[in-house]
Prior knowledge:
Blueprint: H1 2-5, H2 8-25, H3 28-40, E1 41-47, H4 51-63, E2 73-78, H5 87-92, E3 98-103, E4 106-112, E5 115-125, E6 129-138, H6 143-161, E7 163-169, E8 177-184, H7 197-209, H8 212-218, E9 224-229, H9 236-247, E10 250-253, H10 263-271, E11 277-281, E12 288-289, E13 292-293, H11 302-310, E14 319-324, E15 342-345, H12 351-361, H13 365-375, H14 382-392, H15 402-409
Parallel strand pairs: 7-10, 9-14, 9-15, 10-11, 11-14
Antiparallel strand pairs: 1-6, 2-3, 4-5, 5-6, 7-8, 12-13
Helix pairs in contact: 4-6, 7-9, 10-11, 12-13, 12-14
Amino acid sequence: MDGFLQTPVAQAAMLAAAGALAFWLRDVPGLVVSWGKRFFISTLSIDSRDEFLFSALVEYMDTHPSLRQVNQFTARSVRQGTEYQSLAEDLRAGQAPRAYLSPGEGLHILWIDGRLVWIRRELQVTQSVFERISLSHFGRSGDWLSAFLQRAIDARASRESDTLSVYIPNPFHGGDWMRARLGSRRPLSSVVLKAGQAEALLADLQSFYAAHERYAELGIPWRRGYLLYGPPGTGKTSLVTALASELHLNVCTLSLASPIVTDEKIHTLLAAVPQRSLLLIEDVDAFFRQRDAAHAQVRLSFSGFLNALDGVATQEGNVLFMTTNHAERLDEALIRAGRIDERVELGACDEEQLRRLYLKFDPDEVAALAFASKHAPQGLSPAQVQGMLMRRFGETFGKPPRSAVARVAAPRGG
């Protein structure tokens, strides 16, 4: 046997076997590491293609004290202004961007909430360039990673839920929308209309959003349109803002005179309206006269506008609000059933409306009734009444009304 092993044939066979074994075993270390990662390490990865989650994680890292232990950071600027038109405008308004710091590229090992965690941040280059952040820790359960990410989401959502996002067509890419500004949400009670008007509209919208399956059963497009009409200052735009605030919706404002709104682009714009948005077209009577463009700036045809409103590309679940000061000027084709489902007139203040407007400034019920009785015949708009009351009570921001000052200054028991 020993002689056989000394032969060239046997030696060649053993070398071949050894080579095959080595070739097979070369993957074992990698397999062991991969097996160990799978069963003993939990990892969460997020990349910058998911704008919300990635931004939420980066912003949360900036506020977490444990993550300030690293000595290599990546800075990301976040605009602080409510107007998103340009950085120069923010700077002129004294609202410089803020730098959010998070662990830089590479591997970082640190303790977070009493747990050993390692964070890897890397730049990925494929057909596009994006960042990836991976968080890992020992243990098979991903509960801690899930909870960590949820805290980041909650922190971001709490900031967003306190604001109202207003979108306009992107001037650089005419087929999509950009956030133009952030505003404070306003309660529906802040818009004083005739009794029950605002509440009825809110209930109608709530019913619409709850009726998706019913629309599908009937084969009716799940869309809804409202026309708000009345003189200037009657609260049309304020009402839309308040309804969006109550329902936590976006507002997308569309000017038909915008140079990027053409017959070709409007279909794309309406198809790209962010979900759960109110689409607002103000002063719609100002853009067309007898189906012709009212002025040279309007590059959209009347038929193109109607086709876009009816187009199959228009997203399901969208709600359209059109406002006008002159409902009589609108072509009936624009506001027919199917395009406009509800017409709501916002007119001059009635006596009850005047009383409630007065009570916003002064809780004196007797004075409110007298004020309402006196001014009801004058046909005042809510904006006119508000201006009158602000002057009457000397309202300036940070200064209490005169009636409040008088009550404080009055001697007790006198």
